[in-house]
Amino acid sequence: MAGADSDDSLYPIAVLIDELRNEDVQLRLNSIKKLSTIALALGVERTRTELLPFLTDTIYDEDEVLLALAEQLGNFTMLVGGPEYVHCLLPPLESLATVEETVVRDKAVESLRKISHEHSPVDLEVHFEPLVKRLASGDWFTSRTSACGLFSVCYPRVSSTVKAEIRQHFRTLCSDDTPMVRRAAASKLGEFAKVLELEYVKSDIISLFTALASDEQDSVRLLAVEAGVSIATLLPQEDLEALVMPTLRQAAEDKSWRVRYMVADKFSDLQKAVGPEITKNDLVPAFQNLLKDCEAEVRAAAANKVKEFCENLPEDSRETIIMTHILPCVKELVSDTNQHVKSALASVIMGLSTILGKDNTIEHLLPLFLAQLKDECPEVRLNIISNLDCVNEVIGIRQLSQSLLPAIVELAEDAKWRVRLAIIEYMPLLAGQLGVEFFDEKLNSLCMAWLVDHVYAIREAATCNLMKLVEKFGAEWAQNTIVPKVLGMANDPNYLHRMTTLFCINALSEVCGQEITTKHMLPVVFKMSNDQVANVRFNVAKSLQKIGPVLDSNCLQTEVKPVLEKLASDQDMDVKYFAQEAISGRIKKMKRNRK
Amino acid sequence: METPTKLPPSSPSSPTTGFSVPSAEKVDGFPRRSMRRARQRRSHSSSQFRYQSSQVELTPLPLLKDAPVAELHDLFCKKLQQCCVLFDFLDCVADLKGKEIKRAALNELVESVATSRGVLIEPLYPEAIKMISVNIFRTLPPSENPEFDPEEDEPALEASWPHLQLVYEFFLRFLESPDFQPSLAKRYVDQKFVLQLLELFDSEDPREREYLKTILHRVYGKLLGLRAYIRKQINNIFLRFIYETERFNGVAELLEILGSIINGFALPLKSEHKQFLVRVLIPLHTAKSLSIFHAQLAYCVVQFMEKDATVTEHIIRGLLRYWPKTCTQKEVMFLGEIEEILDVIEPSQFIRVQEPLFKQIAACISSPHFQVAERALYFWNNEYILSLIEENCQVILPLVFGTLYRVSKEHWNQTIISLIYNVLKTFMEMNSKLFDDLTASYKVEKQKELKKEKERVELWRNLEDLQEQRLQSLTEASRNQKNLQERENTTKSQSETSAANTT
């Protein structure tokens, strides 16, 4: 390595710095992104003494450049000479941690957190911790915000005096004048609590948590909720009731819907953190309230958690709680006025059947499923259908088939093509669960109708769907039911439909196998090579290339090749091009086979 | 510092804003989807009602104008208390009688405060502020449309507006009454009150924001002790909007108030105010929804310049720093603001910023989007700007000449080409000697640039080769080290096992 260091003089720092200063932002950005290349060229010594001071001094640039710089510096430890010199990276990162733009600051903090682990305990106290202190007492809110994310990484590895200082700084930031800083502190409170000794969690963190959870701004309060969950996991069971529950109870009834939303959103984590007893006594009524909240946003968030909440209830009383407390609320949500609430519920409600067992499902849940299958909002119906497998395990899908069919038919013909697309994607699953007989009788015609949909994306999905169905039901089924219909479309007056035949053949040839392909499909493809529309003809060329691997070499040589050669002399440019592509592709493949 | 702000119409029956969804629908046979959504939505837009569980039955009180003077204040107070009852407006037929009683009471209160003197006595202040707080302070409901676009979508209107409007009207008349005494009011209109008032500016209902604007303006004008606090909280709202959420419906209204506040700043400007300009107003230009409040923002910026010319450089450099890279619409807005600034710039300040500024203008002229190029070229139609350019022709012409020359040959849009010819002609007339020199050296300059570019590519290629070498030698070194360590370890473990064996 010593030998490589000697040719540094080849690259005077000035030339490299010119690159970092280029007038064109894009070039400057490119240079910054390759900062490690520059550092490597300079060697560790000059990177420390020349490059880093330059970077520290000239930080006033486009945010995009600063972002790239902040990211680079996080991976610079080796380039400045390893862990013993890592503190050289602190000055530029410190300035970056104070800039206005949030993404830059966040990236700088991320890099600082990363390199903090590379500091020795001594360096951490001599270099890193003073930086955190400077940031924590900065004038402008940006530096104080950044400081919030750095306490937890240095706390575990410093002496107890320094630890006391860090706790003091964190306390100060929790009651900062600007809500931005309080928000940052609240969002890091849980993380900080985790590295603190239990006695300080009880003495310091709880009071901070209580204060932040009753902040005048709801944006602060809602962040405290998440911290509350983390804190609850740290405390012994007997302290929970006195230390965190009053605050959490208050949060669940906060006057701001944002805070209540947050509680609903974190409900499963909260449930795990507080354990079965508190869940039974406190969380069940709180959850009921959230499910009945006056704001749809909150109800939807809570509805999303119904299954998880029920699953995690203590086993001894699970069924009673669900049947007497949760199910009545769920029943009301099925006919909620807001479609987001209903669709959130629909995405989890089927999961309740495994928890409640066969009899309860048939008696209590089935009517709800059926009601949701008839919901006016397609998303609700889709969510039910997409989760059919949960019910299938418990009571079998047949129980639903009466209502299922109209729901599927209606979705299949929905005016919005994205809805149609979504239901197509569930077809293979439905087909598998309903069985081939039911499918042939009721659903097959739908699948064929999609092939002539006026939206290309639907036709494409329908093609793919056929392939998956054949994978499920086998080639023989394909030959009897779908192949004749697909091939029939080759005579359709609409050229788009004729092309769909080709696309289906592309998708089906492999799953149907050589015999069906050669016997039934290939003749149709050949016939279409005389189509009057050029698009059809060049798709014939493409199809021949695609299905080539399925055919035997004799057939390729004697039948396919002449057709392609004829197409290669077509008068249309594109047809010629794709025919030639197909021929050369085939040749390549044959050569490969020979090898 | 008071600039007269137009009062919203006070009579409850008069149309309050230009919103007329149904009639727009009638004209256009194809109602936009957002309108259909808006109608659905409106029924959901009140978060207010949930806090009152038991409903009180209201009974009509005697009219204020019929009351004997001795009982007037008592009756006024009773009416205020009556108006603290909230009604469910989501259910439009619920308790119609009670709603009507409250509406009539509010109307009377408004009229009384507006017309008769001597009504506002000290004991009424806490009652009045309580009535206002109970009615207007509420958590705003979630937006029914998460991608609400203030320019495209119809806003969700507040369902309880028939009462809310009268409460706002009462508050405004209260503040504007000749009997109003700031020294009494400041006990009740405190920091907490103001903070809640500011949060309401996020309302989606433009009628509400209009009232809030006028009211906050009056509060700022009359309660001097709250001024610094109000400015600080507005700062926080803006900073949150810029760096955290990008959502706040009342930015334009708050800026409008600030426009007149800035107008009243004393000279020399305090550093707090300069900081507000540099760290809040300028970064506001980065917002995605700039178009909604750009006019008010540009007004504030120009106000600052007219107050104190020395902030010019901060402003221009700030705008250049945040210049839009991909949004041409915003670029046109920025150019408009620059022209507003140049209209009032002092020549001595112009010299300090002309170089970076005209580099950016040159970049705009070469924009393939013709509206951007056109907007930049219009600067040459502005007589004052033209005179500044002429005075500094020696500096500016070399900065823009290359671009003008190139774009005049390349631009796809005929209008741009002819505008550029005019600009070139103007320059030729300004300084024909310099113009000829630049024309002559154009090719040489181009060549120089190409050569430099080549050198750059070469430099980077060499650097990358070097990196390759270094990395190789580094991995080799580390491999050697590893081997060495392993060898040491094996000898150590060997010696350990032998030691163990001996014991």
Automatic annotation (TrEMBL), chain A:
Start and stop residues of the HEAT repeats: 12-50, 166-204, 205-243, 244-282, 283-320, 326-364, 365-403, 404-442, 482-520, 521-559
Family to which the UniProt record says this protein belongs: Belongs to the phosphatase 2A regulatory subunit A family.
InterPro entries in the record: 2AA_helical, ARM-like, ARM-type_fold, HEAT, HEAT_type_2, PP2A/SF3B1-like_HEAT, PP2A_Regulatory_Subunit_A
Record-given protein name: Protein phosphatase 2, regulatory subunit A, beta a
Residue span(s) of domain Phosphatase PP2A regulatory subunit A/Splicing factor 3B subunit 1-like HEAT repeat: 276-357
PROSITE patterns: HEAT_REPEAT
Single GO MF descriptor: protein phosphatase regulator activity
Protein's UniProt keywords contain Nucleotide-binding: no
Phosphatase 2A Regulatory Subunit A helical domain span: 89-270
Gene3D superfamilies: Leucine-rich Repeat Variant
Keywords annotated in UniProt: Repeat
Species the sequence originates in: Cyprinus carpio carpio
GO CC aspect terms: cytosol; nucleus; protein phosphatase type 2A complex
Automatic annotation (TrEMBL), chain B:
UniProt protein name: Serine/threonine protein phosphatase 2A regulatory subunit
Gene: LOC109093055
Entry-linked InterPro entries: ARM-like, ARM-type_fold, PP2A_B56
Organism: Cyprinus carpio (Common carp)
Any coiled-coil regions, as ranges: none
Annotated Pfam families: B56
Composition-biased stretches (Pro residues): 1-12
PANTHER family: SERINE/THREONINE PROTEIN PHOSPHATASE 2A PP2A REGULATORY SUBUNIT B, SERINE_THREONINE-PROTEIN PHOSPHATASE 2A 56 KDA REGULATORY SUBUNIT BETA ISOFORM
Bias-annotated ranges (Low complexity): 13-23
